[in-house]
Amino acid sequence: MATFRQEVEATIPALRRFARALTRDAETADDLVQDTLVRALRSEHLFHGGELRTWMYTILANLNRNRLRSLARRPVMVPVDDGDAAVDATEGARDIERALATLVDEQRDALLLVVLEGLSYREVAEIQGVPIGTVMSRLARARQQLKSFLEGGRPALRRVK
Amino acid sequence: MTEHDRPVTEDELHAYVDGELPDDRMAAMLAWLASHPDDAATVAAWRAQADSIRARYGAVAHEPVPARLQLDRILADAQPRGRRFLGMAAAAVFAAFVVGGGVGWMAHGATASKPSGFEAITADALEAYRLYVVEVRHPVEVPGTEQAHLRQWLSKRVGYELSIPDLSSLGLKLVGGRLLPGPTGAAAFYMYEGPSGERYTIYCAKAAAQETALRFKGGERDATIAWVDDKVGYVVSGPSDRDKLETVAKNVYDQVDKGGAKKS
Could you report the per-residue pLDDT of B149-171, keeping only the tens digit for each? Predict the structure, then answer.
């Protein structure tokens, strides 16, 4: 019992990092982590052993997918100049944020789990419930999209101004 | 051809960047990159992306964990909320018995102008799935632990004998259920949850048709399988994995077919 709790606790910093990159908003990210923790503690009996960390990422990714689905159904007000108003983020940091925002959900999940969270392809396949080949093609598409956004996207956006 | 000579694939380039390339391919990879500047540039670009992502978000893991994410706080919050929730559920059950007829009648009137029938049932069921599947704390009115009560209550309200399928052989645990307004009266709604939080729901409502085949309707994120059996419409909704959904629906179909009207 105590060890389950301690293990859950140990995942919090990484979950916050993953959630922040997924949502690109600190408040939303911590909401997501909070819901993940509530769900995990409540579902201890559903945890069939295996690696707890992977299970926590799975819950978080599922909750985020549910969140995006409910967001998609109602209009959301987004400040038009959100990135430009922020003074703390450097150009490069904003570029990568915007680039990540252009990815398809499953591709962003896969890329962040590998690159930011350091998970293996096998673990990501388990989290996403797909074969490793699918994880690799999601990664490939994500990287391709980031590359073309970072190389072409910004100048194009600048020209519009 | 030896391991060393085989040309490098794009998958291997990714594996190399992510530290998943087998050792026996490492020499071939380095030789390949030395003689293929385009691939070397691609690898460098991917690494730069990864560096930017880590530079942007890596530090979040070193921030102090905010108070609301402390497990003590979450557990303390969960306890009274759970108790309050049970109280509310009990009150809701009581209210449902007392004002039952009236609410049912109002719901009937309010929805009478909508196109009723199979399409409406499926649409309502999917709407309910999308609405409640995102609920973390209050997804149901009556928890799955009170299954007998849930079955009695909902059966009484929908006006026919319901059975609540047991999907534990598929790793799905009953979260609970709730009563919803359906196209032509009350509808029963059950929610199940798998080990990693994936949720499936079953929606039952009276239908005009006598019997239909199982119909699949898939979206990008979710999907439904619906059918009518003995004038009761069933809609099973879940994530868009069709094979899994079919297994779940088949299980439900078999169980309501056997259990349904005859049961107690």
Answer: 888 888 888 888 888 899 998 99
Global pTM value? 0.57
Residue range A1-77 in CATH 3.40.1620.10: no
Tokens of B263: 């049961």
Q: Average pLDDT over chain B, rounded to whole?
A: 78
CA-nearest residue to B133 within chain A is A66
Mutant choice from B12, B18, B38, B56 vs A, greatest count of A C-beta within 10 A: B56
Structure letter (DSSP) for residue B65: P
Of the candidates B90, B177, B193, the residue with the CA atom closest to the CA atom of residue B128: B177
Strand-pairing partners, residue B215, are: B226
Token code pair at residue B117:
């029938």
Q: How many CB pairs under 8 A join A and B?
A: 126
C-beta separation of B175 from B143 below 8 A: yes
Q: How is domain A83-161 classified at the CATH fold level?
A: Arc Repressor Mutant, subunit A (1.10.10)
Q: How confident is the model at residue A93 (pLDDT cuts 50, 70, 90)?
A: confident
Instruction: Give me the residue spans of the domains in chain A.
Output: 1-77, 83-161
**CATH class of this structure's domain B99-259:** alpha beta
Nearest-5° angle of CA A73, CA B196, CA B167?
A: 95
ipTM for the complex shown = 0.84
Which residues on chain B are in Cβ contact (under 8 Å) with A139?
14, 18
**In this structure, are residues B222 and B213 in contact, taking their beta carbons and an 8 Å threshold?**
no
| Residues B178, B176: Cα–Cα separation, whole Å | 7
Q: How many CB atoms lie within 10 A of CB A90?
A: 11
B51 has a pLDDT exceeding 50: yes
Residue type, B61: A
Tell me the shortest Cα–Cα distance from A52 to chain B, in angstroms.
11
